[in-house]
Design a protein that fits this description.
This protein is an alpha+beta fold. The protein is built from four helices and nine strands; from the N terminus they run ββββββαβααββα. It has two domains: 1-103 and 165-194, no CATH class; 106-163.
């Protein structure tokens, strides 16, 4: 960091061995991690830098473990034949990876709030469904059931979107490609040379 300006952004430099150092927060290891345009590429089992993938602030040694699964999108077409066939095919052709990503305290809180909100909506929706079924007047019973189903669906969507750290773009035998990673985080990494 520039001693003249205490508000200056941290300075990063890439070393010849492919690792980079963070002048403000010490040395960071980026071995097995690259940027490919707006995607993060990492080797399976690579240790990501101790930075938040959402905002690039220090993660303070917090790691969120994610088990990823991916298959070529063309296999989604088998759902039109049969959902059961799709499940079987997806399980057979998928690629998997286990990664650990850094998250800052603020993004951990946001993720926790999204998950809690999702559970509250889902439980509220279930309560509306059972409450609607228990109504004495059968004319009004379908309304709370319908609202309950919509509330459950909204809760599921909020939970999926709000808890998502990064999206999987592709997985092969050795590497994982992730999207929705902070651009400043990606700038710290060497360029992927395929």
């Amino acid at each position: 960091m520039n001693d003249d300006n205490p508000y200056a952004a941290p300075e990063f430099s890439v070393r010849p061995d492919g690792k980079f150092s963070d002048q403000a927060f010490g040395s960071l290891d980026a071995e097995g991690c690259w940027q490919d345009g707006n995607l993060l590429v990492l080797s399976k089992g690579a240790q990501l830098p101790d930075r938040c993938v959402k905002c690039n602030l220090p993660a303070n040694d917090f790691r969120l473990e994610r088990k990823l699964s991916w298959h070529p999108p063309i296999w989604f077409l088998t759902v039109f034949i049969s959902p059961l066939i799709y499940v079987i095919v997806a399980l057979c052709v998928r690629h998997t990876a286990k990664i650990e990503v850094g998250l800052c305290e603020e993004h951990r809180r946001r993720r926790s709030r999204a998950i809690a909100s999702a559970w509250i909506a889902i439980l509220g929706g279930v309560g509306l469904i059972f409450g609607g079924a228990a109504l004495i007047d059968p004319e009004w019973a379908p309304l709370p059931v319908l609202v309950g189903l919509v509330t459950i669906l909204v809760g599921i969507i909020v939970g999926i979107v709000g808890s998502q750290v990064a999206t999987t773009k592709s997985i092969d035998q050795h590497h994982v490609w992730l999207a929705k990673v902070n651009p400043e985080y990606l700038k710290m990494l060497p360029t992927w040379l395929d």
